[in-house]
Amino acid sequence: MATIERLDEATVARIAAGEVVTRPASVVVELIENGLDAGAGSVEVAVENAGLDLIRVTDDGHGMTREDAVLAVERHTTSKISGVEDVERVRTLGFRGEALPSIASVADLAVTTRAEGEGASGTRVTVGEGGTGVEAAGHAVGTTVEVRDLFDRVPARRESLGTPKREFARISDAVSRYALAHPAVRFRLTHDGRTVLSAPGTGERVDALLAVYDRTVAGQSTELVAVAEAGDEASVDGASVDADAPAVRVEGVACYPSVTRASPEHVYLAVNGRPVRDGDLRNAVLAGYGNLLPGGRAPIAAVNVEVPPGGVDQNVHPAKAEVRFRDPERVARTLERAVREALSTADLSQAAAVSFDTETALAPAESRFDELTVIGQFRGLYLLCEADDDLLVVDQHAAHERVNYERLRAAVEGEVPTAALDPPATLSLSPREASLLDAHRETFSAAGFRVEAFGGGSYRVTGVPAPLGRVADPRALKDTLDTLLTGERPDDPRDALLADLACHPSLKAGDALSRDEARDLLDRLGECDRPYACPHGRPTVLRIEEGTLARGFGRRATRFG
Hints:
Elements (H helix, E strand, L loop, with lengths): L8 H12 L3 H14 L4 E7 L5 E6 L6 H7 L26 H6 L3 E7 L6 E8 L2 E8 L3 E7 L6 H6 L3 H18 L4 E6 L2 E6 L5 H8 L2 H4 L2 E8 L19 E8 L4 E2 L5 E5 L2 E3 L2 H11 L8 E2 L1 E6 L5 E2 L10 E2 L2 H17 L28 E6 L3 E6 L2 E6 H16 L6 E11 L2 H9 L1 H6 L3 E6 L2 E8 L10 H10 L7 H11 L11 H12 L14 E5 H7 L9
Parallel strand pairs: 1-7, 12-15
Antiparallel strand pairs: 1-2, 2-6, 3-4, 3-6, 4-5, 7-8, 9-10, 10-15, 11-14, 12-13, 16-17, 18-19, 19-20, 20-24, 21-23, 22-23
Helix pairs in contact: 2-6, 6-7, 6-12, 9-10, 11-15, 11-16, 14-15
């Protein structure tokens, strides 16, 4: 029979590291948070080989004394809390005292630091398989942490990682999120000696947005702010709230509805300066846009929610990517109001539609929708049709998207034909988008894009897909990147990109259709191999049985029974 034994410290540290240090990006996050907690006005991140060979994070915070530096690499040592009661009112990004020792258990670690008033000499602490070393070292006030040969001691973890390009994309995303959440801090990210991101730290959120995206995005944005005072019953859209409800302050920047993406991944959220992924907060941002967004599109926005430490639990997830609010509905209402009010005073002129369609005809086939009778159109979104004893509701966008997708797929064998652009178009990509483009260059080439790096985050598009003799807009490249940003990994990435291309010319919300046009769309849908779902998997048709209506109206039977 097995006996219970106490684990040694090295084993405990290795297990703990599995929760804190999961990939290179998680190391970067922990070190950035340490710098921000130290009051840094500048954070520089340098990585080599996507962080597997080297991660170096330098900050100009208050630094550490020799005694503190030696203590900092030990487990469960921190300057940020002193007891269990402090966990409930954490004001810092880090607080568990696990980051540095967890990193040291799976990599070689060196911490060089100097506190103000220590003179010209600082301290260097090294931790490796040979033990811990301490020596004097020159350093400006602040701290530099170097992490080398990450996961060399745990080869299974190293082999489970994605390609270097994928892992660097995650690092780039992480740094971008902190730059947007802390616009008053200078951020710089370099990869293999090349500067990828540089945020000036002016305190202006639009400047941070410019660093992560480009002038087109930053130039079509507006700053937002809303406050719900503690216990103020009239402060959130007149809703009654708990008299002890914590204060909520929302600040951020939101792009106009004319600047959209295909994925909500471009909605950046932070709580008390910590980037988080929260579906309720993201939905509140989308609700703030109301019906301003085109169908199937998502905005670009970066918002930070400030609540008192007692109003939020940040000790929910090992990666600290999730939080729990004491009053989540009040937070969501305040966020929605901030977005709505900011957009109500902004210039919301729409950009021109993408000039790409798939109207080339295919040989007609017998329709499976011949017997449908079009009743009419509802809210510019749905076609109401009669089919025997049932009512059919057709999503006109999803239906048109299925038609366009199957035409694209039928017209393309092997690689998608490309049309040369003369002159080439220039696109500015965020560091995360650029990393993904590099990681999936072969996929984009097979989809018909020809793209060259142009320097400074700019890319030159020399060729675009032209699958049916119609030329895609170069901006479609950004939407196909969003397919990958969502984290989806379809069996056939090329088909996923064709699905995105099919979306551009499809009918949008509010597009009016005559009965003849509606009939024509249904006939084309009936020609499709899979007419009952759009290429993204959403249904194109819903059936409402007459019996359902009879029960809803309290009738005992249908007209025919």
